[in-house]
Fold this protein.
Amino acid sequence: MAIPISYNVRNLKLRKGLTIMTALGIALTVTTTIFLMALLAGLNRAFVSSGSPLNVLVLRKGSESELTGGFDATLFPTLKTLPGIAKDSHGEPMASGEWDVVIVLPRKDGTGEVNVTVRGMMPDGLEMRMLPGAENRPSVKLVEGRWFQTGQREVVVSKSIRARFSHANIGDSMEFGKGSWKVVGVFDAGGSAYESEIWGDVNQMASDFDRQGGYSSAYVRATDPIAADALTKRVSDDQRLKLDGVLETDYYAKQTSSGTPIKYIGMVVAVIMAIGSIFAAMNTMYAAVAYRGREIATLRVIGFSRPAILTCFVLESLLLALLGALVGIALMLPFNGMQTGTSNQVTFSEVVFALRITWAVAGYAILFALVMGFVGGLAPAWHAARQNILNALRS
Amino acid sequence: MTLGSFVVRNTFRNKRRSLLTMISISFSLLLLTLMICIWRSFYVDQVAPEASRRLIIRDKVSLAFFLPAYYRDKIRSVPGITAVVPMTWFQGRYIDDRPEHFFGRAATDPDEYLKVASDKIVPPDQLKAWQQDRAGALVDVTLVNRYGWKIGDRIHIQGTIFPVDLDLTIRAIYHRDPPQNALYFNTKYMEEAWPWFKGQAMWYGAQVDSPDHVASAAKQIDDMFRNSPLPTRTESEKAFLLGFVASLGNVKAFILGICGAVAFAIMLVSANTMAMSVRSRTREVAVLKTLGFTRNRVLSIFVSESIALSVAGGVLGILVAIPVIAGMTHRFLGLGIPLDMKVTVPTAGLSLLAALFLGIVSGSLPAYRASRMGIVDGLRHIG
């Protein structure tokens, strides 16, 4: 027969100080782990939710990012004639030649300078991104002001750009390229990678950065998902173009590699802290077993088997860890949604994202704590189960 | 029996408990040492004297804009500048995208490169061979060891940023402390393969004759190009790398946060152990007091025990940290993070100081309780 779990709960309550301190130790480890996992979850979301499966990104052959693309503008009309492209509001094929440049802006809080992507686009580029997206992929919405006008030195900024940099409010002027640009609107990209960008007219941008006569990338909108697949192949296979087509969603999915440094550091930190916590939990459980030597012997005399005792103490350790995990999650919850940024390893510009404590993150955190509890509790529980009944009763 | 030996005996009376506490603390201190090391390598440690005299000149807006070749001669004319080389980060792909195949690849001018990168040591005959072969490569000795390369081996690097594939022959091997895991090749090779690139460089590296002239030379260079189509931004190599670190996110807050959590965890663990230790010795404390030990004596006995435990854990942690950090430096280089970490004496000292401090803090409360305990209650205590 198994020992009821209420026995463990009561024991944990009896040694309040010990329980709280050990649980807090585990909680701190869990907190650190959750923080790192939430960072990664937020970063992944920024990339996974970016782009539309109907948009095909066109780059120079061999190029891996919009920043390092660059092809001749004369290819663009040919590109537009490819079959499978949706029509824009004027009845023309929906395609946008774009210029991506990275500029340096000082952070508002004075903690240094950051690379920010500035994107010059055609009117179709805006239209394309405002079309309703697929599930979990927000489309871009204007939240304040108006869009930039073709032929004007105007830019629109994302919500998070406005929040993170000075001179990014409507009516302000931003200095880059060959002069100043007026901020005329603010858009909301729903946490996708566009959330880290500044948009303006492609021709104005190209002339400012001496890149006339070419585009760093182009976007075309396919009529449906099947056409999108066909279009990527058509672009890549067309001998006249020497370009590569890739689904916008695939392009962003690849950029999740930007999280590698965080992932690596996170793993090292979590593992070291976890080992420390396991030894601490072991200590507590050994103490718990030592205090209850006579009690355990009595249980054995009553008829509880060794496996029952073993299970009982492992359970107690797991309970302790669970408590720690819950405290850890509670400690981290206020940070949910906090915005931060890291360097995008594909475009070298900053990608802004929010900390996200998802159910999966919380689940992993609990699992992580339970593993700590199990490893930490096993040896003391084994010790408890193997105790000599007579000696223990006599002590 | 002196107080010292009394404390030592008591500390290791319950061997298992002391050992577990020590190991637990040592892992926390290992992490703390690691964080201090990262912090120091970013913000405190001075770079080698050669590197502090090195300037990096790039486009003011972004590395994506290349600087024209005539900038090189103009930079050279600035007083104090002894050598200037064009540098272009090629990146590319060696075999595949896996991290173990990642290392730095850059195009430069072999004739002058080592005058700027004076901390790299290359045998003269190899240097000559590199300068004479336009498709030659100069590689770090750590890469040679990692991939089993030797002089004369051919390596293929596929272009990613640039539409050029490289077929290079290893002509020279350099040694640098700490290693840097990079490959350099002739910028002319790239220009021939891709004429559009001719006469450009992603940035220029320059050597200044003395550290005193670094700031003035940097300012002079930026002033010179202020009103040209491509204004420049000149900074020391260290500042350039710090900018890279800053781009990874709020690293300072991140490190401090982890340090805080670790310090707090040590305190909990060690306070926990001391509380247990005091509890099991309640009757003993009462006996000590009956014998005439003062409160302060009792207090100091327990605090000393706590200090002994955490400092022992600290020493263990620092000893483990040395190989761990050496391994991580190697791994970080593979990830492209410029990091040069070593457990130096000040770092170890700081960690030990932290251990000492945490030992005092965490031992105080349980020790205070023990010292305040009434003798009669203590003697009556069962447990």
Q: What stands out?
A: Residues 113 and 327 of chain B are 29 Å apart (CA to CA). The mean pLDDT of chain B is 84. The first strand of chain B starts at residue 54 and ends at 59. Residues 295-335 of chain B form the longest helix (41 residues).
